[in-house]
Design a protein that fits this description.
The protein has 3 domains: 130 residues, Roll (Sulfate adenylyltransferase); 152 residues, HUPs (Rossmann fold), CATH 3.40.50.620; 95 residues, no CATH class. 38% of the residues lie in helices and 22% in strands. The chain is built from 13 helices and 19 strands. It is an alpha/beta fold. The strands form 6 sheets. It has a 5-stranded parallel β-sheet, with helices on both faces. The protein has a 4-stranded mixed β-sheet with strand order 1-5-6-9.
């Protein structure tokens, strides 16, 4: 049967990013010498790269296999009980787990959720060498994007990275603003490897619904992005820029409040971690903060609104999610009603029977027994909220 190295889905996806050229100029698992140089200089082949790219899976069984390997020996890579690739050993070396975790997240504090998860996944030994991997998703996404670029002969292609938790009006504004300036917009929807009450499937369906119904179809591409542990720390912006560039994007758009942006003012000028990136040929645009102003009665940039902050409603994602978790439909100024309907229907599937009865009693209908979807109830309820003829 030969020797096997057991990896998880997150490691598989990360190796696929490497194999498909999305982390270029990094194109290989680094050996001990290369790892030391990258960890020290934060560069690889003259390009900013925040930490060494290594494969160091945890587990006693994996450690025994790694310590037994000889140069040139071929092993199988196994994920979820299935062979998913192979690797030819070049070098096995010991790593400092504390140093690696700190390089990724900027901290070893166990209160950080990513720190705890990475310690659990990280072994004491890393392996370098040529490898093959079976992971077709990323290949297909690359083909889809290249096809879209060719169809519209896009010269300017802008990337927006979203978690979509939840997808709200500010996201809509960022996308529409970018559409005015670019031939094509790529929405990278970050695909997590941790469980969450708001599933990735729901997030994807929400963003796809918006793209299909409210944007020109030939100018927007929605691509899942494997949001593995390498994107989990304060180096996220650097890695986002690298991946976007290698996908073929010419610009990366960030909100000013984006986590990991490292924003600060120096000599009255706005600066961020993006200013320290070298060797990556991509324009990084940091958008103004948007808020809802009750005086302007619309979404506005904080740079262009004359009214004080006490008139501004900020779009705090966690607060909006708390409304959803409580089963409350957010105001339409925060989240489009159709999107709220999709999210609440997926979060509370057990409500269907009760909601069908309420919907029948409170809704205008055709007089026939219509097919009922829970999204119908929430959309109708929001319409009633917005009815103002009696006020």
């Amino acid at each position: 049967m030969g020797k096997k190295l057991f990896i998880d889905q997150e490691a598989l996806a990360t190796l696929s990013l490497l194999k498909e050229g999305l982390l270029a100029p990094v194109d290989k698992l680094m050996n001990e010498k290369e790892s030391y140089e990258v960890n020290t200089t934060k560069e690889y082949k003259g390009t900013t790269f925040p930490f060494a790219f290594v494969l160091a899976p945890s587990g006693k069984r994996n450690e025994e296999v790694l310590k037994s390997l000889k140069n040139g020996e071929k092993i199988s890579l196994v994920c979820d009980g299935k062979v998913c690739g192979s690797l030819v050993c070049d070098e096995v070396f010991e790593i400092d787990k504390d140093e690696r975790v700190k390089l990724i997240y900027g901290t070893n504090n166990p209160m950080h959720p990513g720190v705890v998860n990475t310690y659990q996944r990280l072994g004491n030994y890393a392996i370098s060498g040529d490898f093959e991997i079976d992971f077709l998703d990323i290949q297909n996404h690359k083909k889809d994007l290249q096809g879209a670029i060719e169809r519209v002969d896009a010269k300017s292609v802008s990337a927006i990275m979203l978690s979509g938790k939840p997808f709200h009006r500010i996201h809509e504004r960022l996308i529409r603003t970018a559409l005015v300036k670019n031939d094509l917009i790529v929405i990278f929807l970050l695909k997590p490897y941790t469980d969450d009450e708001l599933s990735y499937k729901t997030r994807y369906n929400v963003v796809k619904y918006f793209c299909d119904n409210f944007l020109p179809k030939d100018k927007v591409v929605l691509i899942p992005l494997e949001n593995t542990y390498i994107f989990g720390g304060f180096n996220e912006i650097i890695l986002n820029a690298i991946v976007a560039h290698n996908y073929g994007c010419t610009q990366l758009i960030l909100g000013k409040e984006k986590a990991g942006i490292g924003a600060f003012y120096q000599d009255s000028c706005f600066s961020s971690i993006a200013d320290s990136i070298k060797g990556i040929d991509i324009d990084i645009e940091i958008m103004s903060n948007f808020v809802y102003c009750d005086k302007c009665s619309t979404l506005v940039s904080t740079n262009a609104c004359p009214h004080g902050s006490h008139h501004h409603i900020h779009y705090h994602s966690q607060s909006i999610m708390e409304l959803f978790y409580l089963g409350i439909i957010p105001p339409a100024i925060l989240v489009r009603k159709e999107i709220s309907s999709i999210i609440l229907s997926d979060l509370f599937p057990e409500r269907t029977e009760k909601l069908a009865k309420i919907h029948q009693q409170l809704s205008v209908n055709s007089g026939l027994l219509d097919d009922f979807e829970t999204t119908d109830f929430y959309e109708n309820l929001m319409n009633l909220y917005q009815t103002s003829s009696l006020t």
